[in-house]
């Protein structure tokens, strides 16, 4: 079996009791929350698209059973899928492109503990354009200027590992977002909180750009010196209570989710 290694996951959980969860159960809770949040934010497309996180041993990943709506996902319903594509935990089937997209990226990039693939509306809209570049025309967009790569060649459904390996090869060391021609996006990160935070702000940035383009008016460009200064500021983000803002954001989103759609953290099914 191929073993995938990554750095440790960090961050506090939603409630004090969750600190007592086994490592895999904590990962399951966060991933289930990400699924339900993505549904709440409108990032999924029916029962398709997929979010994965490597287990504590880093030799298999968790994913939703195909056919389950994202609003229904619980920590206990997630499947555990090994490096051969076998379901080694949970009940259900894995959608074919899930394995073919996610495994090569998890394998190739040690920092990709999480791999989120969505067809979220505004990012997907940009990828329908002949020039899909996410422009540096706003503060939200700036954070992505050095972490986005573009797949310029749509080749059909990703139904074999070679196609997934091609996508994995497009991630440079600094890449955290891959924009897929005529398709959607792949976002990677070290933790569920970091990856969901990145997915959230990517869609915010894409939405702002689509709206700006919609007006048909000239875009207000940011001077290069200001872009460079802002990127330098963003390269060393402050900690709050000793934690990154992405962890605080995800905790806040889980509190909202617990009120609106409770039960995501159920471990027993």
Provide a descriptive summary of the structure in words.
The protein is of the alpha+beta class. Helix content is 38%, strand content 13%. It has a single domain (16-257), classed as L-fuculose-1-phosphate Aldolase (3-Layer(aba) Sandwich). It has helices at residues 23-41, 96-108, 121-126, 139-142, 161-169, 192-215, 224-234, 245-260, and strands at 50-54, 60-63, 79-82, 87-89, 114-118, 148-151, 177-180, 185-189. An eight-stranded mixed beta sheet has the order 4-3-2-1-5-8-7-6, sandwiched between helices. The longest helix is centred in the last third of the chain and has 24 residues, at 192-215. The relative contact order is 0.18.
The strand order across the widest sheet is 4-3-2-1-5-8-7-6
Number of helices: 8
Which superfamily, in CATH terms, is the homologous superfamily? Class II aldolase/adducin N-terminal domain
Secondary-structure content class = alpha+beta
Strand content: 5-15%
Number of domains: 1
Quaternary structure classification: single chain
Q: How can the largest sheet be summarized?
A: 8 strands, mixed
Kindly provide the radius of gyration, computed on alpha-carbon positions and rounded to a whole number of angstroms: 18 Å
CATH topology: L-fuculose-1-phosphate Aldolase
Q: Helix amount, in percent?
A: 25-40%
Poorly predicted runs: 1-16
**Residue-averaged pLDDT:** 92
Ends distance: 27 Å
Which CATH class applies here?
Answer: Alpha Beta
**H and E string:** HEEEEHEHHEHEEHHH
Count of beta strands: 8
Q: Based on the coordinates given, report the CATH architecture.
A: 3-Layer(aba) Sandwich
